[in-house]
């Protein structure tokens, strides 16, 4: 018989809630749910059911209802790729990205191992200059040189990447370049094929018949707030990774074609307010060969690790914030439609349209000015399609941080499916259940989104899970013999 708990004397809300959870019918299931989230910081709360039926025998193989949980809901991981939002889920995303990139370089995951013998390059494309900035220069021998301001900046100097002359820096051009960087990359992939065909003295149709170009890329923010792209580019035969590229498809040809494509790729942006702008790549770009083995070289594993690292980053490296500044009630407009049908000033943002005032953000002047420029450009009708209000905190960049061509390797979805199937098979084996026959099973389900986050008591349990994970990671890194 359950007795009513009087917990008013417990001052901590988290501890009070944890005691309440401990007195539910199945506290073990509460802790199990939290452990299965592996430290996720903002889990998704769901209510619903799922039923798996064997169509051959009409037997219900598995059924589940969230109402049967001690808290009446199901918790699932948020799946956020950004390490600033959820370190636990971002580690899973980084691991998946690593295997995706690695498979496209050395095979595996349904990719032929012969791809390691195909011409492959690690290409870095940068943004042009919109004004001189503080930097750390080196001479050809690698010896440090003073910045244009006359100072030898340290690696963590806060002024790195900020303009030498803020009053003349082209903030409009910088924000618009970020906003069109994704389109510029798309055009680069087209011009790369054209440049390669021109360099080899063949038609584009002949090139498509004998060669397929596959790629995977990731975006990274520079200190100055502009994105640049790191890309893996691979030559395949006409049938993709299973076929050998023709003899004329060499790394040297790829190197030349990248240089030609960088110089020829252009994008024109027109506006009555700012005139005509020509978007191009920066003069500095790199094309490095990827080797299967080697010490100090760009090996398959090193490139995959590099791409995976930046796939979980956001714009934090540029000194900005990791959250949208758009006021949700008015969607950035500054007004809402009242009951009488008239437009009323939004009380949440006082008509600014900003969830947080730009002038009050805890950022440096350079990042603040780029955010303000993106916000102001978003009010121009000709740039409405860029949704710069929404992406002001990203300094105008609105593209995918990581992407790949269809034939490069496996997909993130396929990797998640494999992991889900493995967990299901492990759970069935642990419970002594027979293997499922996937050809005869049909699953029906219905789910409702309730919200995100933990209860206060669950948050204490999740903090303990994260602590255990941190200890295990430190033991793995340092080689603790006791763990």
TrEMBL record:
This is Replication initiation protein. The lineage of its organism: Bacteria, Bacillati, Actinomycetota, Actinomycetes, Kitasatosporales. It comes from Streptomyces alboniger. InterPro entries: RepSA.
């Amino acid at each position: 018989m359950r007795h009513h708990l009087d917990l008013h004397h417990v001052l901590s809300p988290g501890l009070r809630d944890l005691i309440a959870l401990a007195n539910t019918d199945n506290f073990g299931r509460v802790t199990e749910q939290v452990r299965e989230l592996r430290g996720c910081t903002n889990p998704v709360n769901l209510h619903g059911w799922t039923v798996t039926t064997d169509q051959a025998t009409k037997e219900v193989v598995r059924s589940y209802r969230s109402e049967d949980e001690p808290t009446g809901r199901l918790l699932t991981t948020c799946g956020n790729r950004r390490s600033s939002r959820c370190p636990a889920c971002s580690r899973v995303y980084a691991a998946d990205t690593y295997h995706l990139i690695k498979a496209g370089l050395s095979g595996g995951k349904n990719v032929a191992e012969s791809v390691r013998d195909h011409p492959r390059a690690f290409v870095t494309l940068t943004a042009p200059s919109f004004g001189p900035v503080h930097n750390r220069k080196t001479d050809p021998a690698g010896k440090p040189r003073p910045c244009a301001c006359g100072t030898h900046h340290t690696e963590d100097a806060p002024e790195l990447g900020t303009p030498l002359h803020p009053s003349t820096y082209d903030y409009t051009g910088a924000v618009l370049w970020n906003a069109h960087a994704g389109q510029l990359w798309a055009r680069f992939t087209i011009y790369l094929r054209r440049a390669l065909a021109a360099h080899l003295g063949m038609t584009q149709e002949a090139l498509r018949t004998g060669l397929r170009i596959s790629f995977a890329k990731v975006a990274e923010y520079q200190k100055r707030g502009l994105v640049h792209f790191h890309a893996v580019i691979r030559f395949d035969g006409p049938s993709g990774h299973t076929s050998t590229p023709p003899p004329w498809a060499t790394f040297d040809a790829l190197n030349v074609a990248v240089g030609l494509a960088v110089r020829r790729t252009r994008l024109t942006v027109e506006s009555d307010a700012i005139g005509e702008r020509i978007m191009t790549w920066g003069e500095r770009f790199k094309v490095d060969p990827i080797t299967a083995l080697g010490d100090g070289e760009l090996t398959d594993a090193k490139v995959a690790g590099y791409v995976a690292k930046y796939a979980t980053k956001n714009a934090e490296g540029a000194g900005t914030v990791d959250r949208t500044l758009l006021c949700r009630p008015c969607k950035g407009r500054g007004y809402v439609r009242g009951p009488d049908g008239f437009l009323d000033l939004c009380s949440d943002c006082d008509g600014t349209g900003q969830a947080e005032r730009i002038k009050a953000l805890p950022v440096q002047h350079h990042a603040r000015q780029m955010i303000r420029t993106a916000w102001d450009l978003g009010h121009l009708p000709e740039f409405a399609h860029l949704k710069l209000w929404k992406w002001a905190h990203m300094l105008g960049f609105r593209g995918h941080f990581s992407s790949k061509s269809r034939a490069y390797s496996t997909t993130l979805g396929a990797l998640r499916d494999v992991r889900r199937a493995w967990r299901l098979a492990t759970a069935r084996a642990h419970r002594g259940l027979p293997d499922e026959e996937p050809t005869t099973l049909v699953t029906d389900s219905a789910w409702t989104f309730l919200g995100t986050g933990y209860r206060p008591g669950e948050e204490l349990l999740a903090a303990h899970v994260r602590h255990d994970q941190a200890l295990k990671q430190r033991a793995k890194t340092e080689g603790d013999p006791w763990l």
